[in-house]
Design brief:
The protein is α+β, with helices and mostly antiparallel strands. Helices cover about 20% and strands about 35% of the residues.
Length: about 180
Amino acid sequence: MRHPRRFALGRPAVGAAVLFIAASCAAGTTQPPVTPPAAMAASVSPAPGGQSPSAPSTADAPSPSGAIPSALSTRTVNIVAIGSSGVSGTATLSDIGGGRTMVVIKVDANYNLDMPSMIAGGPCSHIDETTVWSLADTRGGVGTSIVTVALADLIKSPNNVHLHPAGDDMSYAACGDIK
């Protein structure tokens, strides 16, 4: 036969939570509910004229820093092969606030396992490595980095995202102009 108190005694965290809530209500101290970002987007009122707002896209997903990049603060750079490297793909640059930009590189690495990548001054036709923001190596064709420069500053003057075939081969495998 079960002990009549087993539920309360077997779950001390539940009992403590109930006591805390009861004490808070008795004291008149209540906290406003916390609404997660996804629920806030789903609770948007219809636009004037009765039209429902569009559903958020995956581009509106929070970044690791919690910022939500918008279409205006995100740029996609087409990365094209240099020479016969066969490396091509995209780099997505998203302004995450605080003078920082998240860079996500996705390329067909063409058997290059670890590829050093960076942002440098100038267009791909004239890469100027005197100003460089190093990125995490692209491993298996994917790399994610955060650099301490605002996306708006990267767009102001010619800059590029480029990749090298390997850590010991600093020739250029692929490049894309940031526009």
